[in-house]
């Protein structure tokens, strides 16, 4: 992010410096730099910007055989259909709820964990712990969902084996609307909690050691030191991470949901991304699904721009 | 500095807490390893918790002879190597060019890259694009769409900014052009950041299954994770899918096959993890929020 800020601050001087010379001279002088730049920019234009042009089909009744040129224009018809559908409100609610639950868990637990990690004085033990808790971040959701599905299997899964041994009735966790969201949140925390501590640990390491010494002399015990010294010192980091994750409120974790959900739990688990996939790719309703996707992209953009403003207003450096 | 009794108690409890956390994190993997070595006859009898139920390598034999797993491995290795090489290289070249303040149009290029972080065309237009480009069922579809991303470019750019200008100027006086400077001076100095970005890209490609969902219709072009997903979710098909002869079925069942497949496909990630670890903490912090 520093880069992007540096960008903004140097923009003026660059334009001033460049404006004195004829363009072609600069182009010739930097021909090799442009040569280095072109392949990457072409990839970005092709795979990031061409799909933005593809958004026009959200305003059409797109027919794959007629193409963008030949398909019928329907204006905002797809959006009227979207906002008029009861499904939409259920899916939007699911998306926001799942992501707010995850946000609440993934913002508090890593902070607590890093405070405690920081108290481990045996460095070998601490490093080993860190290696273990970072690992799940690198395991794919496919493998993770495989573990979950096998653990939660109602017939012979480990959890249900334990439940039945104690005389309980087996529960179809992944097929139950009561449990599905909790499973999403818990498994997400399990996979990402370790990774989430990295940034807080770095911030905690930067806290001035004299502050702890002073607090100790004043008679503060460990808990008080954490509460009155460490937490206030890392508050800016916490604040900015929370604000930034608010911008991703419509990202409820596509891969995870996609791999774990089933029609049994659509009422609580179907989110915008999975809906786009089903309606668009499986049912080939290209225009309608593109409209849903556009709604999501637009909200995300408004959120991130607003959030960036807020971060800057709070006196921190924003994303740009 | 003497510790008070309270601090000692806290310290002991804290170590115990992390031992429990680690056990919780390790257990599922342990369980899978044990499951994969289990004898199917015992597994069916009722669970196991710490040690395998019986002992059998039959599941591994079956998995390693499984045509779809092997083809998944091939596809994933090719797209991971291709994607990592192309992705890392183009991220570096692009980042280097826009790191030069003298470059005309740099603001426009930077904005074009930044804007992709704010807005995207979405799933369907991307899918239709790959279809239009006739890339369905090709390695290009698995590699190119996600080869470079804005975030990595900006991280790399901030690293290049840290390389002293004097090095470049000295080389230029000796007659080097921008290409020689980039390849002979900048890249060798950037091994650490190239390794970090490269490893993140490689993990992404290795774990990717969704490109197969979107862009692949022929099963023999499925990535490994896609093969696994199919194996895991198609419960009744696991054995049939593994292509095991009837005589084998006494030794393996759906469960042991799944566990063995998961282990086999995780091994590459586990093997690079120690190397990865050296770099990723740095990678997670570069370009992130200032403390």
From TrEMBL, chain A:
It comes from the Bacteria. The keyword Ion transport does not apply. The chain crosses the membrane at residues 32-50, 96-120, 132-152, 193-212, 233-254, 286-307. Residues 92-307 form the ABC transmembrane type-1 domain. It is a multi-pass membrane protein. It is found in: Cell membrane; Membrane. Keywords: Membrane, Transmembrane, Transmembrane helix, Transport. GO terms for biological process: transmembrane transport. Its main location: membrane. GO terms for cellular component: plasma membrane. Belongs to the binding-protein-dependent transport system permease family. This is ABC transporter permease subunit.
From TrEMBL, chain B:
GO terms for cellular component: plasma membrane. InterPro entries: MetI-like (IPR000515), MetI-like_sf (IPR035906). It is a multi-pass membrane protein. GO terms for biological process: transmembrane transport. The keyword Cell membrane applies. Signal peptide: none annotated. Keywords: Cell membrane, Membrane, Transmembrane, Transmembrane helix, Transport. The chain crosses the membrane at residues 12-30, 75-96, 108-127, 139-160, 181-206, 255-276. Residues 73-276 form the ABC transmembrane type-1 domain. It is found in: Cell membrane. PANTHER family: ABC TRANSPORTER PERMEASE PROTEIN MG189-RELATED-RELATED, POLYGALACTURONAN_RHAMNOGALACTURONAN TRANSPORT SYSTEM PERMEASE PROTEIN YTCP. Belongs to the binding-protein-dependent transport system permease family. This is Carbohydrate ABC transporter permease.
